[in-house]
Give the backbone structure.
Amino acid sequence: MSEFPRSDGAPDALEQLGRMALREQSMESVLQTVVELAKQVLPGNPEASISLLVNGRPSTTSSTGPLATDLDETQYGRGHGPCLQAASAGELIEIADTATEQRWADYCRVAAEHGNGSSLSVPLPVSERVSGALNIYAREAHAFDEQARAAALRFAPYASVAVANMHAYQDARDMAGNLQIALESRAVIDQAKGILMERYKLTADQAFQALAAVSMRRNRKVRDIADELVQSGDFDLGASGLV
């Protein structure tokens, strides 16, 4: 038996989302819950998906079935369509009838052939480099009334929070990783400088300049030249131009 309500309507679905501890859930689990609930409470026997644009690159993070996934990917392949428009422009996009819609005519023809009669794409603003859309693909034309649009709009913040949390965590992890790499690089460069200072009686600045000069000549990072010196003891001072 499904854990999602099938006939209680949007208020119960939103209450279920509201009870979720968003910070304790993975982004994927929250987004999948959003699309499953949207599928069950919105009209038109729909399928739902969430599209993300990360630095302009689109992907589908969650979907209730192949209809939604296929139509998302059709838009990605063409570079246009309602979900991409909603994600990039930050506006609600509705196609009332794919058989008569004049916008994105090539996409709408494919959508109609797949059995999609109408659709809603709700924007998910996240950050400067991440945006998205909650997409509802109904099998009936003219499936959405004002109440359905309002319900779809109320689902969107839960998806936005999940995506924002995950990307904030990823950014923090990347920053920590970069800091660790920087600290490790600084340590090995300091070790290499110490070796050169002792071996060739150089100043700290001269030792660094020697590493930098060999780095440029060999087209390799200073850290790699320093690591090679620390590991092997080999260093061609003549290649630095200091002698």
In short: The mean pLDDT is 82.
